[in-house]
Amino acid sequence: MAEHFLGKEKVVGSILTIGSEQNKNNNMAKKKKRSKLVCQKCKKTSYFTNKTKAVEEKLEMSKFCKECRKHTTFKEVKK
Questions:
Q1: Measured CA angle at 69 (ends 68, 73), to 5 deg
Q2: Which phi and psi angles does 23 have, rounded to 5°?
Q3: Would the pTM of this model clear 0.85, i.e. be above it?
Q4: Please, which contacts does 42-49 make with residues 24 or more away whose CB atoms are closer than 8 Å?
Q5: H-assigned helices in the chain
Q6: How far apart are CA 2 and CA 17, in angstroms?
Q7: Which tens digits make up the pLDDT trace of 15-69?
Q8: Taking the CB of residue 26, how many other CB atoms lie within 10 A of it?
Q9: What angle do CA 53, 56, 62 make, to 5 degrees?
Q10: What is the CATH architecture assignment of 2-77?
Q11: Which residues sit opposite 42 in a β-bridge?
């Protein structure tokens, strides 16, 4: 049954050899870029987020700053 599905060269005895050759052609998982968010008032780094590589503009969001003890604007900076 496995020989029919994978081909005879992929089957060694009763052990299936499914390896990196099959995963090389599979580009389903895209890597995400880890971004650092910095408070614009105190310049402290309090948050990290994941961003897909398809998004090119820099993130800007309102979050709670532990140093300022209030909601401020956080912008993405280079790591």
A1: 60
A2: -80, -20
A3: no
A4: 42/67, 42/68, 42/72, 46/74, 47/74, 49/76
A5: 2-6, 20-24
A6: 10
A7: 555 555 555 555 566 677 888 999 999 999 989 998 887 888 888 999 999 999 9
A8: 7
A9: 105
A10: Single Sheet (2.20)
A11: none
Strand 70-77 and strand 32-39: the pairing is antiparallel
Q: Distance (Å, rounded) from C-alpha 79 to C-alpha 66?
A: 20
Both tokens of residue 48?
């990290």
Token pair, residue 39, equals 């408070």
Q: Where are the domains of the chain?
A: 2-77
Handedness of CA 5, 9, 10, 14 (dihedral sign): positive
